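FAQ
Q: What does a multi-component entry look like?
A: The components come first, one per line:
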Amino acid sequence: MPDIDPQMLASHAAGRAAKARRALCAGLSFISPNLSLFLVFTLGPTLFTLGLAFFRWDPFTTPVFVGFENFNRMFADSRFWYYLFNTVVFMLGLPLSMAGALFLAVILSQKLRGVITYRTIFYLPTLTSGVALFLLWKVMYNKEGGLINTLILPVLHLFGVTGSGGTPIGMSEMPDWLNQSWTILGMECYLAKPALIFMGVWAGIGGGTMILYLAALAGVPPELYEAAEIDGASRWRRFWDITWPMIAPTTFFIFVMGMIGGLQGGFEMAYLMTNGGPDDSTTTIGYLIFTKGFGEFEFGYAAAVSFVLFALVATITAVNWRFGSKAGDY
Amino acid sequence: MSDSAVTRRSELPWLVGGLVVLLGGWWALNRFVLRVYPADATAGGTVQVLGWGTDPNPARVEQCNIFNRANRDQGLIVQVVPGGGDAQGIVTRSAAGNAPDCIDVYNPEDLGKYIAKGIAKPLNPYLKEAKLDLAHETWPALLDNISRPNPAYRPGIDDPIDARIWYAVPNNVDYPFIYFNRTLYQRVVAERTAAGQPIPPEPWLGWTWWDYAALAKSLNRRGADGRFISFGGPPPDPWLLAMQIGAGMRGEEASGFAALTADERTARGVSGLSWEDCIAPFARQPDGTLTPWPNRQALTTSLQFSYDMQHAWKAVPTSSDMQQMATGGGGYGGTGINGQFLAGTAGMMSMGRWYLMQIRANVSFDWRMVRTPRWAPYDEWARWQREGKGPGQRDGAWGDREHQDRGYLTVMNTRCTFLTSSAKDPAKAFRFLELLIRNHDYQKVILLEDGSSANMAMTLDYVGKADPLIPDEVVNRTPEHELGAVHGQVGRPRWPFSNYARHENIRWSNLPAWMSPRDPLDQALVAGVGLREVPELAAFAKGERFTSSDVLGKDLAARTVAAMDRAGSEGFALDQPPGRQGPSLATMVVFGGLAGVIGLLAFGVWRTRKEPPHA
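Then the predicted structure of the entire assembly, as tokens:
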């Protein structure tokens, strides 16, 4: 074995280090525009919000350190828990919209005539702004003259449903989708919740979720289906034993992203359609943060709610990642 | 070899030249044809522009012009700052130190917030310099809205103006009327007469909310599909009604209240309440906490009445109906109930005098300004119905007699203007505030195009005469009567919010949701209690269901009041001085739980990595 010159080794090591430094500098300079914007506009405000949660502050007075006051108030306030409950209830639509999107994607992945047109039509609502969609649905849910009641009323007449006084049920006796409630087993049940969930399912079926499923379905090797078909597997067995496991990573991704979006969501819906009502039944954590911060100028309290929301999202995502990611192991 | 990019003649000079011609032409058009830039704007040297944060009412231009004509030679003009009246915008701009110099606020609680935050600048030095004593210049009911007692004042030594710290100058004053579509009423009279149905009388000076309900119900007309063709009007604001009921409960005046026996007070639901408490929106408890609406009976009755109007009698559209008919918005430029009234769909509309000109300019039907109904107990009203007592015939303590003890409660509101603490030259900016209360031309603009003038003498002089420009105003003597009452010609209590100084620490932002007509009444939907027929009213409202006010939704009222307490307590908690707190048990449990979950996950990952891979 030839002798190795230690001086040469040291020289080579120094050269490698210098090269690594240059690469690092080059890399940093490439990402610096993005990194600096991220630090200033994302990480900075996030850390600021975290700190603000321990202060009482409106924009005019010096922030006063109050320790855990904001958190204590929040956790002692039954309304916070109610709004969290509302947020979770609205997330019940997630599996429904995923199932719908998968169903649609399976159909649209078939070799049909004009399938591109169908795909475009089903994706179109995604191109519409959320504000327009919410306002459209608000009009559709109108008690008098709204599309939903206008469609239901003739059906009720067909079945001979009568209103008060024995006459055929009139428009004024139709459900008030965004305002009505009933007491069932001592609990107030608001029609606005299922109405908004239904709207969310509709909006979630045909958009990005469907596209993701279409891409996932295209990635399933066709020879698996051919082999299963030769073995005599039924259509359902092929779906359940091949398609579903093969698209599991996509399902997991959609579910995690949906959970995160659901926990943070509900603001536009509440702001545009219901103002969080009736009786706070459609107020979500996202809407609470807005009203506390920009309606009542309690930025410390709003920051505390944001912090808890962040912790919840992080925890739920971690749990999903730990146990749900195994869905892709096959 | 030639490079085409180099040798080709560049079109850039043409582009620049074209832009210069375009922009120059645009400037010349504005300068010489449209005269957007006044020729003499800089004639007197540097021009200082005052910013006026207010709403986009076209009258503001005329109001600015009055000031600008008077001050341009001194290099001072005022300009409206779009969106400058928006509270969130003011907060943001003030925090950045560039808020408009003068800002309009539309209710006293907003001004209170700006005072508490130090955004509103005390005006005392400027008022003394201008020798402007607002206590004599404007309406007494407004004084507590725009000023606070000065604890450092030394009577006999200091200038009397310093008895209070003045924060704003009232800019206008307004009070609600009912605008009444008489053409629609006459059409309904014809229809109901042909069908053999009775019809309530037209509004008159002494009409009550029960009359309003009956009239509104008769004006509701639906098509074959059940949709509204026309409707009577919206329900009253519960908080306004609660104050009216409270005013009625206390016997209308201090001596009358003192004379009430214990039994009478119990019967009226005011035992244990003071004279002020009867109409006060808040009461301070012995432990220092504040409770909304001490007069619970009045509040409950008010909520009940509004609920009944919508859901039991179906006299007015429900809040949902109103929303669907786009009646949600009011105010200047609103397309809500204003639009419905202008279109002839709504028979009645409660709105301020400021809306007078818009109605005159936009409708062709016959309409009236009538007084806001007053409160009377249901039993008395039912008795008048049984005995056939029409307008002018109603007897008893609650009858429609004109008496100085009656004390009609007129809610007066003011748009007032304050100087911001970031105003660059507050002394010059104050000149504009002075104009708002003193300038005759400005008051005339207000009286013709807005509510009424904040200058008491000028307004009384104006409405005391029949102005040929506004002949409608003298019908039913509405403004004359209301403002005369305010002035003391007819005895009445001052506006309840005039004791606002007691409540300066309240977070009003928690309350509007409970004060708005919609939310408390929507909760009424869940009450689900039964209805009871009242036989004595059957003759009056033939075939229609009428129900006594006190049998419905008591649970609703109790729950709404409890919710208001919660909302109030939430706000009051923030008025306590801040102190450092350790985590509560609930906080520890929540964060401990989340940390535990994360810890378990991390432990699982660590164990998985530590285990040797399977063979």
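Q: Is there any commentary attached?
A: Sometimes. For this entry: Chain A has a mean pLDDT of 85.
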